[in-house]
Every structure is written in structure tokens, then in C-alpha cells.
Amino acid sequence: MEIKQLRCFAHVAETLNFNRAADRLNMSQPVVTKTVAQLEHKLGVKLFERTTRRVSLTPAGVVLRREVEGLLAHLDKVQRAVRHEIGADSGRFAIGVTPLAMQTVFPQVIRGFREAYPEIDVTIREFTTEAQVKALLAAEIDVGFLLAPATAAELEVKVIHEEVMRLAIPSDHPHLRQLNDSSIPLSAFAGDTFIIPPRSQNPGVHDEIIRACAVSGFRPRVQECHENQSCLSLVEAGIGVSFVMNQIDCVARGDVHIVDLEAPAPVLSIALAWRSDDPLPFLEKIRSLAFGMDLTAEA
Question: What is the pLDDT of residues 168-180, one digit of tens each?
Fold first, then answer.
């Protein structure tokens, strides 16, 4: 049995959903399915009962889940201990980044970090907040730029930037004529369909959108969509409206207009997360840059 197979099994066993497990692992769903099938073949037992409507553990799967949880926790502890021992001597630093952080605060921070530590081999992985928390706890990455809230007992999480979301609407939307370069209340779009990510994929974004709509006095009619560009394609087709992080999302889309919203518009909080017991000196530089204290000249 391989550790990768056991981790895949553990995530599917926890979520009972292959797509959700794939999101957590930053893998495609077919790869997760294949990996679990390989583990079942290796063990010679069926671990999951799968129908078109639900996934459940078999008796063998229940036993394996109980054993695997302790094993993976021990392996994660070993990885962290090794990281503590080698400290900065490895010359490697792994960073997790969400797409929103990649478009906002991360470029400036990583530029300053590379100037301070040009000899360090930096690995950058773009994946979800939930996957980053798992990777941090497993010592697969050293620091994460993720969406708050994100909590775990062994992590320090501090907000470093807030991004006010804007609304993408079709260019023929009736409210567009009323704007005249001014903002508009979110409640004005209560009758529209909101194209948003499913909660299983991005709970932070999903929940903040639902919260802002509730504060504005309505419950949105929702069309779920996984990819930002696909959401904008649906807006362009007149299916509904969709929140965007910044103008970058809307390049070369003449049939989509971006409008500013009056408060309370949805606000996404980008946070920096790291293991509270991690001794790597690189972390201090990342924290200083992320919180606006550029110490490049002193490094």
C-alpha cells in the first residue's frame, strides 16, 4: 500500500464524495477514483459501496478508516519533526496560494521574498483553502495564502488583505442604464440568478455571497458553476449575474459589464497561515512582507 492511496481513501471516507475529496487533494476526480480502485485491488476487498446517488463505506472500509486515521496522523507528526530538525538547511520552501491571492497580494510578497532569498528553491502550489490547511498540517507546504476563516489548532492564521467583490452582469442588463458610473445596491439584483461556486468547492466564497445577499434582504436563486471563466460565459449568455474579484477576470468579454456595489457587498479576506511550531526562518520574511513591513534592505 502507498501513502498516496491511503490519503485518497481517507479523504473519500471522510467526505463520502469523490469530487469533494478530489478538491481537497488538489487532484482530478478520475485520478482519485483510480487510486482508490488500486487500493481495493491491492487489499482484495471492496472499500466503498457506490451508487449514482450515494457513497458509503463497506465493513472493510470502516475498519481501514479507523486504522488509517492513526497511521496518517503519525506520518504527519514524523514529517513535521523532520522539518523541525533540518530547519533552513534544506534550502526549500513550499507555498500554497489560492487564485484570489495569486491575483492580489501574492506577486508583491513573492517578489520581495525572492530578492531576499535568491538561493532558496521555492515551490508554489495553487489550490483551495481546504486543501492548503490539509497540506500545512501534513507539512507538505510551509505557508499558505488562503481565504479566511480557516482554523486548525496547530495553525496560526492572520488576515492580510480584504477584497471587495464586484458584480459581473450582461451588457444588456436593465440596471446598466441606471448606473451612470455609480454603485448600485446588491438588493437591486434580487430577481436575478446568481452564478456562484458550489459550497463543496469553495465554502468561504459561497458563504460570504449568501451572507451578503441575506443582509441585503433576499435569498438568491443560485446556479452553481465551478470555474471563474465558465461563470463569466454564463453571464455573457444572459443566464444570470456573477461575483468577480477584480477586472482581470473579465478581459476580452465585451458582453459582460462589471459594476461596483454599495455596502454591504461581499468581502473576501485573504489570510496568511503557517504551523505555529515551525522554526523555519523564511517564515519571518514572508510574514513581514505580507503585513507590509518590507525588510528586504535588512536581509
Answer: 999 889 887 766 6
